[in-house]
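hi!! sorry for the late reply, been swamped w classes. u asked for the two structures so here they r. pasted raw, havent cleaned anything up. first the sequence of the first protein and right below it the tokens
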Amino acid sequence: MMDFEDIIEEKKPIYGKWAILSFCVFFSPVFGGFLLRQNLKEKGESKMAWAILFLSFGFACITAALATTPLRGPGITFVANLLEGAFLVEYVFKKHFPNEEEYPKKGVAKPLAISFFVVTLVLLLVAASGVPLPTQ
């Protein structure tokens, strides 16, 4: 006979909404979107995972476009990333993980190290290419 405990499915660890929002704000919506994509993949929602990743690339393009307007500056980038991250966690994350507290949380050390590496690599490539970085 099967125990009741055998029927209960153990939930896979996910990145918390604060981790996703933090990566959106301090790096880019692409980084936060990637973490949310990982969560959705773990849940088995592969098509939605890809859609969220492409949406986060769109958000990054909006932020880049804002940087070319007279509104440019670190403040507008921060606000845009915050609003885009808030959309990802308050709408998408809550819709797909309404019971977030039931899921164990993944640590952010590995994604943080990868994010620093990617940002450093991009900055080094831009500097090596001779393209001047815009002043803000």
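now the second protein. again sequence first, tokens right under
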Amino acid sequence: MINNRIFKSNINHLSGVISNQIVDTLDFGFDTFDQQVVVENCIIDTLILHNAHFVGGLCLQNCIIKNKVQYEMGGYNKMPIVIKNNIFMSLFVFLDCIFGADLVLTDNIFLDGCTLYNGYNEFDNVIVENNIGKMDDERWD
């Protein structure tokens, strides 16, 4: 298991890559990341994205996320945010996010749905392809 606080406090000084890990809690909440953050090939129990600003971009790929993801008041990216080839076991909530560069959601499985198209997000450019699951869920909890 990884205690994310180690990554969170040092991620701008490291390569920004978390790979091939089993993670209890990955907490990016209430932080700004100027460099690209890459999370790949991980099993994550809890992913916290509340008020996370990935200015340098984010690549979340080939992961299994077990619990609900609440991406609220986030984005503010100048580089692409790519969420690709993941399995989300619970609801993925996008709420009040502003994406200034590409938001790419491709080849994901949303077992309990996703609220991408709930009307409360702003996109400069959104690319949504080959996802399985309801993308316009209106639930909050």
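hope this helps!! also noticed smth abt the second:
The helical segments are 4-10.
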